[in-house]
Amino acid sequence: MADVGVSAGYARRIIMEQYAIELDGIAKSFAGKQVLRDVNLKIAPGTIVGYIGQNGAGKSTTVKIILGLLDQDAGTVSIFGRAVDRDDPMYKRRIGYVPEGADLFEALTAREYLQLVGQLYGLPESEADYKAQQLAEIVGLGAAFDRRIASYSKGMRQLVLIIASLLHDPDILFWDEPLNGLDANAVLVVEEILQELRNRGKTIFYSSHIMDVVQKLSDRIILLNAGTVVADGPFNQLAASPDTSLQQLFNEMTGFAEHGEKAKAFVDIVMGGADDENAQADAESDSE
Ligand SMILES: Nc1ncnc2c1ncn2[C@@H]1O[C@H](COP(=O)(O)OP(=O)(O)OP(=O)(O)O)[C@@H](O)[C@H]1O
């Protein structure tokens, strides 16, 4: 029976790790304005979660609270069954983050930047360097690896951020608009990487405004509207019919149906009061 302790410990670990991310009653206000209200989520490991919502819905605020970058006003956050502790190195090592439009150190080369990031995550310099270079070569950054980031295009910078988020082999990834600036081929590679990571048990919390990609990639979609979760589930369970797109669902759930009218009013103003001219022309033809 010598192995009973090991088995019990293992079983306990499995139970503790039942959820990669758990939010319980999260609330947050800024200057009296409530941005998140009673957000409750339980996310199993090995899931791609598409976290969507209109501008200002509270997506980044949620992610910053999970990452320990912001304090919530109420509620608890647990990562693999442990309450968030920003001083706990285990916690940091299990998480990778691609922030939207992050500033990179322009004066550094990709090699120098990624070595630095790797070391911050506790990797030995030589290991960080070797791993970063291999990853860079696969995504087509090999030739530019020793060039300063200042000379990089938007898509190349995005690839550097993606590599930086993965160097330490985290278990949970927070990716905010990860496909920003990538060309069509790079998009395909990154989408495949995402699915491969999920297939190997990683949990991906994916925020994007590109609805067809979220629909295609996500195992579970969470729609936040004005700080409240208004839809949560696999897309095929949320959609009213097989013909419904996530874009339609999004418009419906966020109460937005006037995109056509808004576009027309906008272009009318761009073109110098076309409506006024049309109204005048109509009035003239009526009086004839
Ligand atoms: N540090 C802050 N101080 C004051 N208000 C803030 C702060 N951070 C966010 N907010 C406000 O909280 C609300 C939610 O912002 P958040 O960035 O979480 O939205 P989001 O869903 O990520 O939007 P987007 O899709 O535009 O990135 C917005 O009204 C924003 O102005």
Strand content: 15-25%
Topology as a string of helices (H) and strands (E): HEEEHEEHEHHHEHEHEEHHHH
**Which value, in Å, is the CA radius of gyration?**
23 Å
Question: Considering DSSP H and I runs of 4 or more, what fraction of the residues is helical?
Answer: 40-55%
- The figure for the number of domains is 3
Strand order of the largest sheet: 6-7-8-3-9-10
Describe the sheet with the most strands: 6 strands, mixed
Class of the largest domain in CATH? Alpha Beta
How many helices? 12
User: Can you tell me the residue ranges where pLDDT is under 50 for at least 5 consecutive residues?
Assistant: 1-6
Superfamily (CATH H level) name of the largest domain: P-loop containing nucleotide triphosphate hydrolases
* General form: globular
- Enter the CATH topology name of the largest domain: Rossmann fold
The structural class is alpha/beta
Average pLDDT across residues? 86
GO molecular function: ATP binding; ATP hydrolysis activity
InterPro entries: AAA+_ATPase, ABC_transporter-like_ATP-bd, ABC_transporter-like_CS, ABC_transporter_ATP-binding, P-loop_NTPase
Family: Belongs to the ABC transporter superfamily.
Keywords: ATP-binding, Nucleotide-binding, Transport
Could you characterize what this model shows?
- The protein has 288 residues and is an alpha/beta fold.
- It has three domains: 12-104 and 165-257, P-loop containing nucleotide triphosphate hydrolases (Rossmann fold), CATH 3.40.50.300; 107-151, no CATH class; 262-288.
- The protein has twelve helices and ten strands.
- It has helices at 4-16, 59-66, 89-93, 110-120, 125-138, 154-166, 184-199, 211-217, 235-238, 246-253, 259-270, 274-287; strands at 21-30, 33-43, 48-53, 74-79, 82-83, 95-98, 172-176, 203-207, 220-225, 228-233.
- The chain has a six-stranded mixed β-sheet with strand order 6-7-8-3-9-10, sandwiched between helices.
- A hairpin with a 2-residue loop joins β1 and β2.
- α4 crosses α5 (125-138).
- It is globular, with a radius of gyration of 23 Å.
- The protein starts with a helix and ends with a helix.
- 29% of the residues are buried.
- The model is unreliable at 1-6 (pLDDT under 50).
- Bound molecules: adenosine-5'-triphosphate (ATP).
- GO terms for molecular function: ATP binding; ATP hydrolysis activity.
- Residues 21-251 form the ABC transporter domain.
- Keywords: ATP-binding, Nucleotide-binding, Transport.
